[in-house]
Amino acid sequence: MQGALAKRKVAYIDLSTRTTRSREIPQGAREMLLGGRGINMLALLKYAEPHLDPLGPDAPLIVGNGLLSGIPGISLARTSVSGISPESGLLGDSSVGGHFCAALRSTAFDHMVITGKLENPGLIVLDGDDVSLEDGTWLWGRDTFDAHDALKSRFGRDSEALLIGPAGENLVRFSQVRTGGRHAASRTGLGCLMGAKRLKAIVATGKRQDVVPELFDPRAFTELTRRFLRALKKVDVLKHLAKRGTPFLYDLHSRMGIIRTKNATSGPLEGSNSLRSSRLVERYYVHRTGCFSCPVRCQHTYRIPDGKYAGIEGPGIEYGTLGTIGPVLGITDLDAILAINNKLNRLGMDSCTAGNLIAAAIELFDKGVITERDTGGLRLNWGDTDAIMQLVETIARREGFGALLADGARAMRSHFGSVVDEAMVWSKRLPQSDAVDVRGHKGFALGVATSTRGADHLRSRPTLEALNLSAGQLRKIFKAPVSPDSTSYEGKAEMVRQTESLFAVSDAIGICRFVVQFNSPDLLGIDELTEYVNAACGLGLTSKDLKTIGERIGAIERLWIARRTGGENLDGLPSRYSEPMPGGRFRGESIESDAFQAALTRFYELSGIDPASGAPLASTLAELGIDDELLHLI
């Protein structure tokens, strides 16, 4: 390590005592875990002891730039936010894009480990080598859009902030951490963790710096950036994302017949064609932008031109929200979906958990498990946009039935009993992160079952399974026999294992998922990422080293989870997926217990995991160098 990346620091901030200290990140930490999610997970293992209350003052909030985040290159824009999840009680980790990464890069710090609790609402301000705590009562209660504008006015146009909205302040267990007015670390409820610490925002201020000339080999880094950019411009999926945004992915899944409808109890929803991205382009999109250093620019601003919600304007909508607030809730009114999305963003609340929770509540209302006595007279019906909007607001304010839902899926199960398991589409206590029904794609299903943060499509989903690639193409990519039939289990453990490692590496580097091999085999893989890291840092890593780093990050996560659960393995799928799909292209398809268990066992063998506890075997930890000495690096 040398130059701009050699002397980056970790800031340790105790809010209770209002004290800070810092240390340089050792090169050994970079060689073992790179940065971002990698170093965050090491900090979690060291500082988040298994017995801690997620909302207690000793529970750490960990923020970390990827190794290359904030450096002008190809989509080097990701910052990881981590901790004990207030939502699941297990692994809390989420990645956010935008421009906060570059503002943080302008300071001396790549990572923060934040403990304690403020007496009154406050802000952390990072400026150069300085860390200070400021009063935040003037911002408390403001929504995320208003708070963003107010912080820009206070700290200047070059400043960026991670912040929470009213949902986080009111300790809604699935609240977001937002930045830039449009981006969110949305999963696992880390906005609630900020709220518990009375921390309204983390502000990084300072003029952007071009650090490329200070990299290990700036000429090689620049040439790689140009080469990658030429290659990416030829990839069709990126052209579609640029024009339509992530709802383009909703179109693909809708045509495949794998969008969950009415909480996965119904076949394709009549009128759902109105949700296609082409309609967003034609009727709603008014502006397009992108994250720091991003050539794709997939982010669109929408405005509702007329009707009941005329004039509402906001960022997004993202593909997961479109499906979860749309068909999962039985809604085909795109104006209403955009209005609900806008409300969720302003309040700072995860749309996917909100949609899944409300869908489960509607299903249980239909079955008579939940009644008007529980809801305070509110009737819950599929597609009732007014009732759903009202419920979103009461969740954020913790009023009535909304107060119960604000505590998330676990609280709902505790209150209504095991019948909730039949209606909740979740894993590891976390509702699914998108609207895809995974029963027709066994690799997708295995990814959901084994994802370290819960039911998830961004941790290890082998999206290439859905691209009609040949057996030969799949073998070349995954170095193992993989069936091109999405309903087959053959080779799916290998797909998930390798995808998990690639995604962990990309989060540790700080590069966007959309430019690595997620939606196309023609995007950047481990070999290209290795070249990028070496040109920037001079670490001399091989592709095998980078793959091992991804495996090390996953192993640390599983080790921490096993300690947290006391050795109870929570991998698995919701009971709904053992039922036949009710409609669509894969009608009748389900998860067969024996075949799925065999694929899961194979995944454990490949990963060196104890099936009973879900923890890495002792031999795996030794092979990956995960020991007490590693903990000294953070």
Question: Could you explain how this protein is built, in words?
Answer:
- The longest helix is centred in the C-terminal third of the chain and has 23 residues.
- The two termini are 17 Å apart.
- 41% of the residues lie in helices and 13% in strands.
- The chain has 3 domains: 210 residues, Aldehyde Ferredoxin Oxidoreductase,  A, domain 1; 178 residues, Orthogonal Bundle (Aldehyde Ferredoxin Oxidoreductase Protein, subunit A, domain 2), CATH 1.10.569; 194 residues, Orthogonal Bundle (Aldehyde Ferredoxin Oxidoreductase Protein, subunit A, domain 3), CATH 1.10.599.10.
- The chain has 26 helices and 17 strands.
CATH class of the largest domain: Alpha Beta
Largest beta sheet: strand ordering: 2-1-6-3-4-5
Q: Count up the helices.
A: 26
| Residue windows where pLDDT falls under 50 for at least 5 positions | none
CATH topology of the largest domain: Aldehyde Ferredoxin Oxidoreductase,  A, domain 1
Reported CATH architecture of the largest domain: 4-Layer Sandwich
The tally of beta strands, per DSSP, is 17
Q: What is the 3D shape?
A: globular
Which structural class fits the helix and strand makeup? Answer: alpha+beta
How does the major sheet shape up? 6 strands, mixed
CATH homologous superfamily caption of the largest domain? Aldehyde ferredoxin oxidoreductase, N-terminal domain
Q: How many structural domains?
A: 3
Q: Percent of residues in beta strands?
A: 5-15%
